[in-house]
Amino acid sequence: GAGVSQSPSNKVTEKGKDVELRCDPISGHTALYWYRQSLGQGLEFLIYFQGNSAPDKSGLPSDRFSAERTGGSVSTLTIQRTQQEDSAVYLCASRLIAGVSDTQYFGPGTRLTVL
Amino acid sequence: KQEVTQIPAALSVPEGENLVLNCSFTDSAIYNLQWFRQDPGKGLTSLLLIQSSQREQTSGRLNASLDKSSGRSTLYIAASQPGDSATYLCAADGSSNTGKLIFGQGTTLQVKP
Predict the structure, then answer these.
(1) CB burial readout A11-49, b (16+ within 10 A) else e
(2) Residue closest to A27 by CA, chosen among A74, A70, A62, A77
(3) Strand partners, B39
(4) In the prediction, which pLDDT does B99 show?
(5) Taking 90 as the threshold, does the pLDDT of residue B95 lie above it?
(6) Cα angle vertex B41, ends A98, A8, to 5°?
(7) How does strand B86-94 pair with strand B72-77?
(8) Mind listing the pLDDT tens digit for each residue in A41-64?
């Protein structure tokens, strides 16, 4: 596709359930990022992938959060035992390379609601 | 730790006005500073990227400046239009150059016809 896509666009789950969020980056983009946007917290970095490895996962808020990337393309963010404070919009972005002049292209996000 | 602040949080102007959005950052060791636009329920759209060696970038009616020494960036919008109504976010790409962006809280702009 022409842009970054994310699925699902909306996810409602019950507290304690596991959820998986998917990101399809722009073809050929080697860098991939996950961010979280919640009321009162703004937009926060979660994790960065270069290829299939994650050299920076410093933004993951707890060990309930994990992410993987396969084939240097699709990435999945998994949240185990969801809590109400996990409710937010999860945004994915991709970048051609991590160079100083390269911008990030964002997907439309997945809105997660934990009841 | 890099912190990014945007002032004002919200702004309402009549159509046709020129306006300035402000962004400040605490750590001057940045690779670039980016401005994004976010429409309700949508992702972010990149507007301008200023590399650390640059002072400003222009695109159409938009002009962004960067002053690393003072830790400030401004986004100037000329002749505002109702279609400019959105939330504007600035983000600093820190010294690790991983592309990890630290965002401000945003300025929500409303341009009234």
Answers:
(1) bebeeeeebebebbbbeebbbbbbbbbeeeebbbbbbbb
(2) A74
(3) none
(4) 83
(5) no
(6) 75
(7) unpaired
(8) 789 999 999 999 998 999 999 999
Q: What tokens does A48 get?
A: 């960065």
Would the pLDDT of B45 be above 90? yes
Nearest CA to CA, how far is B46 from chain A (Å)?
A: 7
Consecutive H or E run containing B113: none
Lowest average pLDDT, out of A70-74, B63-67, B85-89, goes to A70-74
**CA–CA dist B93, B33 (Å, integer):** 6
Contact B93, B99 (CB under 8 A): yes
Best of A4, A33, A100 to disrupt the B interface (most B CBs within 10 Å) is A100
Residue length of chain A: 115
What sign does the dihedral A98-B23-A112-A82 (CA atoms) show?
positive
Q: Min CA distance, B102 vs chain A (Å)?
A: 7
HSE of A64 in the Cβ direction (CA atoms, 13 Å)? 14
At residue B40 the predicted structure's pLDDT band, cuts being 50, 70 and 90, is confident
